[in-house]
Each structure stands twice: as structure tokens, then as C-alpha cells.
């Protein structure tokens, strides 16, 4: 089974806008003492030893802790609420490395208590989300949260040490199920309780996940605040918890147009978890799109989809992230065929999941084709409702500024630009100004009387302006041409294709010539390259 996001030891820390990952020395415990106590069956002494060194054992010596808990007779564990609650979950979390031998399956006792029920719901939730059943994962997480909320204080007191671990799993299910407001509340509670119970690694992932979610939602100030709260945590590079702080930091660096720093963060934080692949792809594509590197995007996306079960990309946050990344890259590439397909996928994303980004991309697409009334309609909704996050509001103000500039409504253009620049400077969303052509930006500066701060101007100078290419015409293949193209990609000869399709070789020759002409290629290899660049040709 794939691993859920809750593995062993890693730290990714942000200080002063940077990321710092490091290997630190851990508190040294004499594991031989635990082995000696177990050999002598000195259970009272073992209980005292583990209780005294609980924090160090859970942080840096998980193997020793598991050995101690497993060796204790059940009656001894039962006499200590912390040990009883932690026993099975400690076996679930690996001591090192990214993989678990099995997914967490709690074995309830004769009378299912609160922990038994919570563990069962947590297992159901994690199992469902790993196979793409995000609605089921969310339902189980919500049931667990409701049960815990309604349980008396006496019942929860005994299991408090493991509640942060459980809360993190519920938050992940809500996040991947695209229930971001609820996920944020769950992560915040997991963080608070993890800090209270000295569970540093859970606090690292909770804070990092909050930072990523706020960065994705267009709320960079909150994202930076949560990155600053990521605790120091020793790690060996194989833990899963470091990844979310790193992805959040890379996104924030990209917003500041510091693409070298963003790429450096991503390079120093390789993928460990099997559940963050769409978040990482979204972040990497965000950075590469700003740099203008979009030609390889379709092939990368095709390979990514092939590497994961289709259900994982068909719903929830993963679907939204891939659709938004695809639309952004296609828009930058000015490829009509890719743009048509990408925006069709984007339209299928639930409005609550895209958090205004869908309207932003639609509006910029309309601007790119001079469909200014359409752009105005797309941009006006979220602004008039007053629900836009700072990132979305800045983008839509930029759209409005361009619309009014092209319509020669200069006062309105200047007004929208002033508001846009105010948000950009306060939130460090320098990438929003990258949407303007250099000529538009210079004109808006003059009209508004607002000069760009030197820091923003210098940041804009480090990235190439967005190419203002004429959109390539969309390629429309007939069903028969698509069938022939699939055969060509498989390396079949004209005779083989004719036999498979029940057509004459002359017809196949004509269809091949027609599709080559539409793809602007002269041979089979060119057709292969065209499909790698635009897989939607086969749809």
C-alpha cells in the first residue's frame, strides 16, 4: 500500500524568507538500558524509564520506544494510559525510511472504546483517500472529528498523546478532499495539540501544510506566518513531514519572482511522500511557467498521470491543482489546442476548490484574445462579492486595469492599478505584475503616478517578460484521423492500419497526409513529437 503523509524525521525551516534543512544531533539515549530492562523483565523500572524519556524516545528513538511498548505485558501497558493509547500507533509509524510494512489497521478489544472507534475511522479515511475515494475519506474524517468533539473530557484525557497524530490524518483527508476551510481548522488544532504534547514532527507537517494551503489560496502573509512557526526538528532526509514546508516556501519564493531560490528549495527537498505528488507538480509548474518553460509541460503531465491511478487525479484537490497548472501553462504557451482542453478541465473544477483562481485564469485568457467584455464579466464577480483573497484580488485588479487601459478609460485603469500595486507590495505578490507587458506596465505607472518600488522592479528584471505570441490555431482531427494517429504512434505500417480499420491502404494514405498537414509535420517522428507536446490530440 502507498504511504500516507505521516512518516519519520525531517525538518524544513524558514528563517528570514529562506529555507534551512539540516541534520542535527539527537539526544543520545542508551538503548542498551531498555534492552537490559526487558531482559530482566523489570517492568516497573521500564515504565519509569520510558515515562521519564518519553519526548526523546518519540522524537529520536522510535525503535527503542516500540521495543519497550511491545515487550511490556498488556496488564502493564493498561496501567499507563499513555502507553496503552500509543502502543498500536507507535507500531504503525516507521522508525526510519519512507515506507510502512502495512497501512494502519487498529484491532479493537472486546468492548470498542473511544480510541478503537477513532482508529477505525482514521484507517477508513486514510485507506479511502489513497485510492482516490476522497468523498469517503472526508466522510470518515468528519465522523471522527464529530465523535471526538462529542466525547466527554474524561474519555479523551487518556488518549490525548495520540490525538495530534490522528488529527493530522483527518486534516490530510479534508485537504485532499478539497475541503480547504475545514482542513485548515483541523491542521490548526493538530498543530496546537502537537505543541502541547511535545509532538514536534506532527507540528512540522501541520504548520507546513497550513503554509501551503494559504499560499495556494492567495494568502501569502498567513503562509509566511505559518512557515515561521515550523519547529526545529532533527531528520535524516527520509521523513515525509519536511515536504509541505518546502513546497510552501517554494511557492512563496516564486511569488516574489525569486525563481532560483524556489528551484533550490525544490531540489533540496526530494519527494518522499506518495500523497504530495500533485502539490509538488503544481508548485514546480508554477515556477517553470513564470520562467516561460512550458513546452515540456504536456509530456510531464502525461507521465505523471500514467504513474498514478486515474482516480487520484479525477477529483478533490489533486484534480484542481492539475487543472489549474495545465490552464496556466497552456495560457503562457499561447497554444489554442492545449488551452481549449486545459480550460475545459478547469471548468469542471468546483468553484469552491479553485478559490477564485479559475476566474483569474479565465479573465486573463479573455484578455489574451481581446475578448474584453468576457474578461470584465469574469473579473467583476469575485471583486463585487468581496470574497477574493489578496492574491485573487490583485490578479483581478490587474485584469481590470488592462481592460480599462485598452478601452481608453484611463482614470479607471489608473485606479485599479493603484489598488493592485498596493496589494502586490503588501503581500509580496510580485508575479502578478509579470502579467503585464512592459509597455502596459510603464503606461499604468505613468497614469497612476505610482512608481514601482526598486525591489519589485529588480525582481521583474530577473524573469523574462511573458511572450506575447499569436495564439496557434487549434488542431481538430476527425475521429478517423485520430484512429490512424494512434496506430502510427504504435509503429504500425500502412497495411497493418488498413487491415485493423477495415479500410483500403489508399484511404489510410490520404488520412495520414491530412493529419500530417494539420499537425504541420512531415513524418511519423514529427507526429510523435506533436502528441507528446499536446496529448489532447488523441481525445
Structural class: mainly alpha
CATH class of the largest domain: Mainly Alpha
Under CATH, the topology of the largest domain is which?
Answer: Serine Threonine Protein Phosphatase 5, Tetratricopeptide repeat
Q: Largest sheet, order of strands side by side? A: 1-2
Rounded mean pLDDT is 82
Number of strands: 2
Distance between the termini: 31 Å
Shape: globular
Amount of helix: 55-70%
Could you tell me the radius of gyration in angstroms?
27 Å
Give the tally of structural domains. 4
Number of helical segments with 4 or more residues: 31
- β content, as a range? under 5%
CATH A-level architecture of the largest domain: Alpha Horseshoe
Low-confidence stretches: 7-29, 94-111
Biggest pleated sheet: 2 strands, antiparallel
Protein name: DNA-binding response regulator
Domain HTH luxR-type: 470-535
Pfam family, one: GerE
Keywords: DNA-binding, Transcription, Transcription regulation
What's a quick, concise take on this entry?
By secondary structure, the protein is mostly helical. The chain has 31 helices and 2 strands. Helix content is 66%, strand content 1%.
Provide structural commentary.
The protein has 539 residues and is mainly α. It has 4 domains: 243 residues, Serine Threonine Protein Phosphatase 5, Tetratricopeptide repeat; 76 residues, no CATH class; 119 residues, no CATH class; 60 residues, Winged helix-like DNA-binding domain superfamily/Winged helix DNA-binding domain (Arc Repressor Mutant, subunit A), CATH 1.10.10.10. Helices cover 66% and strands 1% of the residues. The protein contains 31 helices and 2 strands. Strands 1-2 form a two-stranded antiparallel ribbon. A hairpin with a 2-residue loop joins β1 and β2. The chain is globular. About 8% of the residues have low confidence.
